[in-house]
Amino acid sequence: MTGRSTRRFRGVFAAVLVLASAAAVALSPPSSAQESYQRISGEGSSWAGPAIDDMRRNVKQFGITVDYSATGSSAGRTNFLNGIVDFAASDIPFQRSPEDGSRPETPEIGSYAYIPVTAGGTAFMYNLKVGGRRVTNLRLSGENVAKIFTGVITQWNDPALAADNPGLDLPARQIVPVVRSDGSGSTAQFTGWLVSRHQGIWNDYCGRAGRSACGETSFYPVISGMIAKNGDFGVAGQVAQSSSEGSIGYVNYSYALNNGFPVARVLNAAGYYTEPTPENVAVSLLQAKINTDKNNPAVYLTQDLSGVYADADPRNYQLSSYSYFILPTTVQGQFTAEKGRTLGAYTYYAMCQAQERSASLGYSPIPINLVQAALEQIRLIPGVEVQNIDIAKCNNPTFSTDGTNTLAANAPMPYLCDAQGPFQCPFGSAGATEETPVKPAAIGILVRFGEPVPATSGAAGGSAAGTPAAAGTSGDGGEAGAGAGGSGGSAAAGPGAAGSGSDSVDEVATGAVGAADTGGGDVACDPETGECSASAAGADTSVLQATPTVLATASGWGSTQTLIVIVAFMVLALILVPALLWRRLARPEART
């Protein structure tokens, strides 16, 4: 190659390098944008911990760094009040008048705001085997849950548990309840449900545990035979150990998913055993009453779950609830207005983009009315850079144009074999999807509530599965259809659907699906086909006005994947272009 050709090649190669370097600089987020975000810290709920950690990881792409310690709701609220952290996460509000006699929490009114950040279910993760095979389809009535966690039922083969599980021969093994050792929102939610639904059992236990005052409490009273662990992760880790067969603990549903373990399906007011899937939680929280009094920030956006406990929708999971961020609305402790800009950007992300990922983590996304209310609360953070978010771009699976919770409206009905009675579904739950075989006599027809039942006979000596009968007024039993009995057996009974004016389950009746009364607003059924679907009755469809934006990356690029692809093309160009130029310039005609 001549000197001229060499110089020409070097010039072209240098130009390629300059262009590539310029492109690389364009793809990098401006350092000033990242430096403008201050590192922030939070502490609190381990129940909501997996969701918060997912949010923390994902906002790093925007130059936002969030430290979070899942030390429990009580510790989070305490350290927020002491000015040690910039925000807190808690499953319950500040306890101004705690029922358990613990010290009252008295934050200054106007110094904080609540926003619901995620929804989910407190689940009963367990470790149990029958004949060396893991049980994945355990069912428990609420009363039996209460008796297990108060030391009344101590053996898995107790007759009361056998009644819940007609398809299983439960082992003669000691039950080991695993509870929280720390101040916990999970414990407060669980004990609040116990007080509401099984107060006699709970009060008796508190007396035996040496508590003069108990009620709803963040600190679980422990007796001999129980194991206490710190955090939901500690409870889940204990239950998941191979040496912990026979144990059962209460954790957020996400922990059972992540550990690959099952959860107990819990009996609801409609007579069905359900688990806290994102869809079931969405249905259940339609009945949560949210305080909408903006003039009382001490309770604004907090929840009353009494309606959730009594909900007669077949998909209901009674221990469904929200968890909150507690945000500062004044400069306090270590929190500054500069940190407020970061906290505002992080919470905007949490209320919009992050909600798309909730269901995959085992949580239920926040519905539109609460998202919009929360976006208004974010504006109160000192130093926040207010975003006018286009709510339609949040891609939250609960959203619809009329405010109806889409996730709840489309939630599937339970299988008929999940109804209280002589049948039991084999299906696994939560993180353990493998089926557990049930006794032949307990095998029902595997159709969902509201689906037509095929004309089929039961197994020899058994029965055909019954389905909900037509509902009458005031909870009276409806008309019964005909079910085909098996050889040597008879048609089996299915629960009747609740009639108007009653939340109770009707007397059982045999046969094909009837038309459920829609007077209660829980289930709407076609009177001819018997096909049922959830109505939006009871949902708060009021839309609080706000105009919120999706958090943009500092670089202006829409996704990390796009960046990777472009950089890959640049690298290829750096490799291939010089080689092609060398070949072109090395040809004889190029040497002249």
Kindly describe this structure.
- There is one protein chain.
- By secondary structure, this protein is an alpha/beta fold.
- Helix 1 runs antiparallel to helix 17 and helix 13 packs antiparallel against helix 15 (368-378).
- The chain is built from 17 helices and 19 strands.
- Strands 2-1-3-15-4-10-8-9 form an 8-stranded mixed sheet. A 3-stranded mixed sheet has the order 7-11-12.
- It is globular and about 65 Å long.
In short:
By secondary structure, the protein is an alpha/beta fold. It has 17 helices and 19 strands.
Which properties best describe this structure?
single chain; 592 residues; alpha/beta; eight-stranded mixed sheet; three-stranded mixed sheet; 17 helices; 19 strands; 30% helix; globular; disordered N terminus
Report, as a whole number of angstroms, the end-to-end distance.
10 Å
Biggest sheet character: 8 strands, mixed
Number of beta-strand segments: 19
Oligomer: single chain
Helix amount, in percent?
Answer: 25-40%
The main sheet orders its strands as: 2-1-3-15-4-10-8-9
Provide the low-confidence segments as ranges: 1-32, 457-563, 588-592
Alpha-beta classification = alpha/beta
Number of helices: 17
Radius of gyration equals: 29 Å
* Beta-strand share of residues: 5-15%
Mean pLDDT: 79
Bulk shape: globular
